[in-house]
Amino acid sequence: MDWGTLHTFIGGVNKHSTSIGKVWITVIFIFRVMILVVAAQEVWGDEQDDFVCNTLQPGCKNVCYDHFFPVSHIRLWALQLIFVSTPALLVAMHVAYYRHETARKFRRGEKRNEFKDLEDIKKQKVRIEGSLWWTYTSSIFFRIIFEAAFMYVFYFLYNGYHLPWVLKCGIDPCPNLVDCFISRPTEKTVFTVFMISASVICMLLNVAELCYLLLKVCFRRSKRGQTQRNHPNHALKESKQNEMNELISDSGQNATTGFPS
Amino acid sequence: MSWMFLRDLLSGVNKYSTGIGRIWLAVVFIFRLLVYMVAAEHVWKDEQKEFECNIRQPGCENVCFDYYFPVSQVRLWALQLIMVSTPSLLVVLHVAYCEGREKRHRKKLYVSPGTMDGGLWYTYLISLIVKTGFEIGFLVLFYKLYDGFSVPYLVKCDLKPCPNTVDCFISKPTEKTIFILFLVSTSCLCVILNFMELSFLVLKCLIKCCLQKYPKSLKVLSV
């Protein structure tokens, strides 16, 4: 079980996403998951082993490390990536439910003119409209919330996105204020800034996608409103014509059967 | 043999599950198995090496670590994942047994081996009850073994060969506490999903039974 499985889950959502959504999935897997797996874990691999405090007091290093790094950067990134990818599953579940209902109706004989067989239903690309539009928009909204929340947690936990090379620690059992040295602080800062920038780009893509979906709906509604405005009595005229046609056909029938109209 | 094997086995259960069952599978795969593999396992990686006691007496650290961590939390987590996932295999075995029977007798014995009625309904119900039992059992075990769900930064130990009560410091206690709380919340979520699925199945069966009895009583009334 690894990131490949998450990629399989999320990759399935890809065909029902907008173009911006597809770009977002690519950014997530190439610039965040791959960087996390390939580089960040090497850089943070020996973080506790090489965290050194200027004291021989047993336990001082442990408590100082725990105080300054309550959760490791890479664990926080891994959790962020998992939480940010999961709302896409809402869309996958909605599409699966829609296909299940369509297949059920097909088996009852209701949608025979729309699909040839059950395989056709499975291959159909579901359009983002109606209730799926709401599910998709909510998933993007949750993604934005999770990204922002994790970025804030990062900032709050580590007092910014920069790692210092020395920390001062005076927590029991440390006998006095001791110097503690973090391993590879510059490399860690570089990766932190990179991951934060990738987060920001993903957030911007999500905001753009949200705006695109909202604009699409507004545009579609205004187009529908315009067609109704251009033909204002169109519906009224149609119903009157239908009534007249019925009267004509009724009187025609009565004439053939010989009854007075 | 690795977690992939469990994942592949469980993926086969997906087609015989209800909607809530599929949500349960997604929660187990993503929030428990994936989080365990990419994050939690590494937090407990050097737990014994980084367990430090304020003493130079050889053997003191070993006995104290063994006393406070009889089974490592991360190993208990892995055991819980395995035990909780396996009852779903009862369903797969049942369907395979039905299909095997049909093949042996060379005729159609069941409407469809995968539909949730008759024997398969009972098997599914039993698997749900066993799953829930394991979840709650492991949570209680966790609580009893470690006196709660939080990991302290310091434990006091006076077992032989430690000469007196020594301070022993656990590594990364905050991170471990966060992950244990994450494990407990996902466990509770899975228990709630199991209860929901159980109620759904029982209600569905009761409604079906009532509907089957109701037309008979209608016929009696009309005569």
UniProtKB/TrEMBL annotation, chain A:
Bias kind Polar residues: ranges: 244-261
Gene3D superfamilies assigned to the protein according to its UniProt record, in alphabetical order: Gap junction channel protein cysteine-rich domain
Question: How does the entry describe its membrane topology?
Answer: Multi-pass membrane protein
- Pfam families for this protein: Connexin (PF00029)
Enumerate the transmembrane spans: 23-41, 77-98, 132-158, 191-215
Locate the Connexin cysteine-rich domain: which residues? 146-213
Q: Name one GO biological process term.
A: ear morphogenesis
Q: What does this protein do?
A: One gap junction consists of a cluster of closely packed pairs of transmembrane channels, the connexons, through which materials of low MW diffuse from one cell to a neighboring cell.
Give the record's family classification.
Belongs to the connexin family.
Region spans: Disordered = 227-261
Recorded GO CC terms? actin filament; connexin complex
Instruction: Enumerate the UniProt keywords alphabetically.
Output: Cell junction, Cell membrane, Gap junction, Membrane, Transmembrane, Transmembrane helix
Domain spans labelled Connexin N-terminal: 42-75
Where in the cell does this protein reside? Cell junction, Gap junction; Cell membrane
Q: How does it assemble?
A: A connexon is composed of a hexamer of connexins.
**Name of this chain's protein:** Gap junction protein
Q: Matching InterPro entries, A to Z?
A: Connexin, Connexin_CCC, Connexin_CS, Connexin_N, Connexin_N_sf
PANTHER family from the xrefs? Answer: CONNEXIN, GAP JUNCTION BETA-6 PROTEIN
| Any GO MF annotation of the entry | beta-tubulin binding
Where mainly located?
Answer: other
UniProtKB/TrEMBL annotation, chain B:
Q: Where in the cell is it found?
A: Cell junction, Gap junction; Cell membrane
Which processes are annotated in GO (biological process)? cell-cell signaling
Q: Where is the Connexin N-terminal domain?
A: 42-75
- Known Pfam families for this protein? Connexin
Question: Topology in the membrane?
Answer: Multi-pass membrane protein
Report the superkingdom from the record: Eukaryota
Show the GO cellular component annotation of the record. connexin complex
Positions of transmembrane segments? 21-39, 77-98, 119-143, 178-203
- Which molecular-function annotation in GO is an example for this chain? gap junction channel activity
**Keywords, in A-Z order:** Cell junction, Cell membrane, Gap junction, Membrane, Transmembrane, Transmembrane helix
Can the keyword Transmembrane helix be found in this entry's annotation? Answer: yes
**Domain Connexin cysteine-rich span(s) in chain numbering:** 134-201
InterPro entries given in the database record: Connexin, Connexin_CCC, Connexin_CS, Connexin_N, Connexin_N_sf
Family statement? Belongs to the connexin family.
* The protein's role, per its UniProt record: One gap junction consists of a cluster of closely packed pairs of transmembrane channels, the connexons, through which materials of low MW diffuse from one cell to a neighboring cell.
What does the record note on quaternary structure? A connexon is composed of a hexamer of connexins.
Q: What is this protein called?
A: Gap junction protein
